[in-house]
What we know:
Elements: H1 16-22, E1 37-41, H2 56-67, E2 72-76, H3 79-87, E3 93-98, E4 107-108, E5 113-115, E6 117-122, E7 139-143, H4 146-150, H5 152-159, E8 163-167, H6 173-178, E9 184-188, H7 189-196, E10 208-211, E11 217-223, H8 226-241, H9 244-253
Parallel strand pairs: 1-2, 1-3, 7-8, 7-9
Antiparallel strand pairs: 3-11, 4-11, 5-11, 6-9, 6-10
Amino acid sequence: xxxxxxxLITALLFSGVLFGLMGNRVFAQEIRPGQKIRIVATDYPxxxxxxEEGGMDLDILRGVLEEMGHSSTVSFVPTKRALAMVEQGExxxxxxxxxxxxxxxxxxxxxxxxxxPTVFTLSTHGYIFKGLKSLNEHRVVTFIGAGGYFGPVFTxxxxxxxxxxxxxxxSAMPELLLMDRxxxxxxxxxxxxxxxxxMDKSRDLSVFDAHAVFPKVEAxxxxxxxxxxxxxNNQLAKFRIAGKDRQIIEKYVGVANSF
Length: 259
């Protein structure tokens, strides 16, 4: 699973001598009211959905920016490219990103959404999970690269599982679980529910038990401009207090109280 604003002048080169001293360093200008913000995002449904120019993370970002008086454009690129574009001043903000300490040219916002790696089982079986080690009792399906993402405790548990399979088509996981092809599916909670409910947002979720045996991971936004990041954080807090982030999430995975 991968590791989600101001219009910048990408280089202010005052002279050939300054260019030689400063190289490719980027200088951020003041943000003008109503300035259009350049977003770069990585396709990862339902957090970012390139085909719809939407998704939970992207909609939250754009919603907060709109309340700040900013319109925006969005381009879709791989994660590493997105981060590089922000640091180099080719874009103003990247989404989603995960926390890192501030440095010149790159500033991480407060969390906009939680990623929740979860183990799903069929509720009819009544499985009890006491931690990751319980996976060794199951036929496990998850996404490609999960072993490297979740670390050695997960790998040790799944090495001893009844069976273990990493698949590329994560959209099929809910149905594979329903068909009892696997006894445990490991995926982000919102991603699992999104694909399960893609055609019907009221589809019954009580058929699954969700085991929260992983710590949540906070996803954020990466900015090139510190002042814009700070202003964004202030508006984001108001946005979340008003429950607007939850409304966006429910647009993609259904009403929360039906979980």
